[in-house]
Write a structure and sequence with these properties.
By secondary structure, this protein is mainly β. The chain has 2 helices and 17 strands. The protein is 9% helix and 40% strand. InterPro entries: F-box-assoc_dom_typ1 (IPR006527), F-box-assoc_interact_dom (IPR017451), SCF_F-box_component (IPR050796).
Length: 276
């Protein structure tokens, strides 16, 4: 069963327009503790408002909440929040003069921002333009394209010795061919392979990358177009909250009809005796 829900309008303090040097970010995820779907909207408006404006929509209460404790002196490099482990994540740059790459997380349960440790990636000039944040199943992933290599870093499970581990590292031409971009889609059932979407100027294809052997084999699916996009879809038994029906006030005509009906019912209940 497919359902949709329209949110209430954003509060008036959230900007409705943006300057050329400002941006609007968003994210969607599920708060398991409170059993609530939530939407996070961020306005990066350092010129108009001197910082970030963050609001959170709760599907459970059908309300928006303003978050006042927000990060300062950061600039986001992506717009779509990546959901993983109960939090939304964005790539950002802390203090533009230093150009320090960071990952900003937002905990949906606590409704608080946090900084996620960054993997040991060499930072080069404009490296953020070749670095992307993604989710691979339940794992947070950083896909990095330094020079002619493809590196994929996956976040480890909580309590692991290291926060990140390098799941994929290969020469672009050597393993995947001359590519323009690629994405990690999902793990195989055994966890030994990663499904990749490889795109170049001529075609898009799906390929399985073996983590242990470092080999690649094409995933052949008949009927696919030359170019396409892949998204991971997970079915859920969780339902969106039901909209409460609007209770309309009865019109004057309806009030009169109800009054007459009550009088008639009272008359019939009391009974009447007719003398012939």
């Amino acid at each position: 069963m497919k359902k949709s829900k329209r949110t209430t309008p954003a509060p008036p303090e959230f900007p409705s327009f943006f300057r050329m040097d400002e941006r609007h970010l968003y994210g969607f995820g599920y708060d398991e503790v409170n059993e609530d779907y939530k939407v996070v909207m961020i306005a990066e408006c350092y010129v108009q408002f001197g910082g970030l404006i963050v609001i959170v929509y709760s599907f459970k209460t059908n309300t928006w909440t303003r978050i006042h404790n927000v990060p300062k002196n950061i600039h986001f490099t992506g717009t779509r929040g990546v959901f993983s482990s109960g939090s939304l994540h964005w790539m950002a740059i802390e203090n533009q003069s230093n150009s320090k790459d960071i990952i900003v997380g937002f905990d949906l349960k606590l409704q608080q921002f946090k900084e996620v440790p960054f993997p040991p990636i060499e930072v080069t000039h404009d490296s953020s333009k070749s670095r992307f944040l993604a989710d691979v199943g339940e794992y947070l992933c950083i896909l990095d394209h330094p020079n002619y290599r493809v590196n994929a870093w996956l976040m480890n499970y909580p309590g692991a010795e290291s926060t990140w581990y390098k799941a994929l590292s290969s020469q672009k031409e050597e393993i995947l061919g001359t590519i323009r971009s690629n994405e990690l889609i999902a793990f195989s059932g055994s966890g030994e392979e990663l499904l990749l979407q490889v795109r170049n100027s001529y075609y898009t294809k799906l390929a399985w990358y073996n983590l242990d052997l470092g080999t690649v084999k094409n995933a052949r699916i008949h009927g696919l177009p030359i170019h396409f996009c892949s998204f991971l879809y997970t079915e859920s038994l969780l339902q969106l909250p039901e909209d409460e029906p609007l209770q309309q006030k009865p019109s004057d005509d309806k009030k009169k009809k109800n009054t007459n009906k009550r009088r008639r019912d009272d008359f019939l209940s009391e009974g009447s005796s007719l003398r012939l």
